[in-house]
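Researcher: Please predict.
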Amino acid sequence: MRFLRASHWGSSLAIALLVGITFSAAQNSTSSPQAGAEAKPKAPTAAKTFPPELVQQGAAQFRQDCSFCHGRDAGGGESGPDLTRSKLVAADLDGDKIGPVIRNGRVEKGMPPFDRSDDQIAALIAFIHTQQINALKSESGRSAAGGRKGVDASDLQTGNVEAGKHYFEGAGGCVTCHSPQGDLAGIASRLKGLELEEQMLYPRHSKSKVTVSSAGQTFTGTLSYLDEFTVALTDASGLYRSWRIRDVQYQVDEPVKAHVGLFEKYTDADVHNLMAYLQTLR
């Protein structure tokens, strides 16, 4: 698998389609679904067909950029939904639904905006729609849970370890917050494959840190509470401290913001190489 930077960045596109589009079964308008069964989106009366060469281009791009989440056939991956069952895909007309989601992003949900070319988006749309049409035509169909596939290990092992280490210590600025001997020690043993990559790109569960200056003293810890009146932290010893905001100065460090800030800076190689390096931290 390859990635394109946020201005042309593939890994995030996988996360993007994962969190930016609401995927569920469309109800069958001709009959009621059986209890416990997932209704499938109904095929359009006159399904649009796409030039084979455009579909092939979209397939190659999809498998490089999106398959680790959504499967190589768009039928669902290890954590990404089945796009062939998507109501949004079924309602999409020449990219009017999918295109804006890709281009605008939903950063608050972990989806960055993507500066994709019209040709790239058109090819992806052609492939996704073709896969949906083929799935709907299939007599056997898919199971209610979807046909999700696992991630090929080779998809996540295409980078250069030394280049990734260089990026970590230099241009990426990762060492300002992380240490291979500290918080990242053994991370590749705790997180594997897609889990590791998602944590690298968008650590949504990371806790915010806060530094509070009060009466000439400085206190640092995990942010425990914050509103317009009070700020509180829990320090390394587990001690809870709180202050009235009007009496102190404070600064909150939200790790996820730093990672989101890298979305538009990553190149294809940066993401692959950084992932290769992190996989050595066992």
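Model: Residues 16 and 111 are 4 Å apart (CA to CA).
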